[in-house]
UniProtKB/TrEMBL annotation, chains A, B:
Protein name: Helix-turn-helix domain-containing protein
Pfam families: HxlR (PF01638)
Superkingdom classification of source: Bacteria
Keywords: DNA-binding, Transcription, Transcription regulation
Native species: Tumidithrix elongata BACA0141
Length: 128, 128
DNA sequence: CAGTATCCTCATGGATACTG
DNA sequence: CAGTATCCATGAGGATACTG
């Protein structure tokens, strides 16, 4: 279980020794899981990704599919997903404008992760 | 891929019809993945869980292990984890107080999920 | 159509002090 | 030791209006 590997360099040393002064809790996520959650966290990311797993979508399609999201949030979240390399943005130079969003290869690698979350949730979080 | 199953009942109907008035985007997460992220989301949850995967821990141990967390946040996050059934809280009736936290069986079922997030992050999110 | 540009609210998260 | 109790900053998220 790789999730636990890092425990034993951080917390083991803290269990018998007392607090250490090498504490520079600056920017680096002490844990890869944290980093992953930053990328797919937030209120809309996974919902957007879910839509895109269904194929290429235009901005308006996403806007309608995600009931309640505002244009600002949709744009913003899409930009973040784009910046993180999960989503590809294709602008057609025409008028009226047409912009299509799709998953990048990297974005598609998220599938097992999202399935894992999905499975756990449906299996164990069945208290609505 | 179970993650995609629900797409085809929500977005398919929205793709050819136009917006529907049955839009009651109230409380229910439209997606189990969302629900899962609510439980393990936030800044500290996974870090706390990571510590507890290492075994039973006292409040003070957690407080020291999670550099930078405040007592308030630690208490709050632990209560939420407890309310969600992931963490068990055992109070020893003695003075000075002693409280131990541990993973419940449900909490332990999160291991594959966290491993999945961890694996993805280390494999594909290697841009520090 | 697919955005910007403002302005605004409020929950998340935090600092500090006190206590059974 | 393991908390409460306050007060406070910040920013994520949203409403609304305007535009290339």
């Amino acid at each position: 279980m790789k999730f636990l590997e890092e425990i034993h360099q951080e917390s083991l040393s803290l269990d018998h020794k007392n607090l250490e002064p090498d504490d520079e809790n600056a920017k680096r996520s002490s844990c890869p899981v944290e980093a992953a959650l930053k990328v797919i966290g937030g209120r809309w990311k996974v919902l957007i990704l879910r839509e895109l797993f269904g194929g290429i979508k235009r901005f308006g399609q996403l806007h309608r599919a995600l009931h309640g999201i505002t244009q600002k949030m949709l744009t913003q979240q899409l930009r973040e997903l784009e910046r993180d390399g999960l989503v590809d943005r294709h602008v057609y130079m025409q008028v009226p404008p047409k912009v299509e969003y799709s998953l990048t290869p990297l974005g598609k690698t998220l599938e097992p992760v999202l399935n894992s979350l999905h499975d756990w949730s449906t299996k164990y979080l069945t208290r609505s």
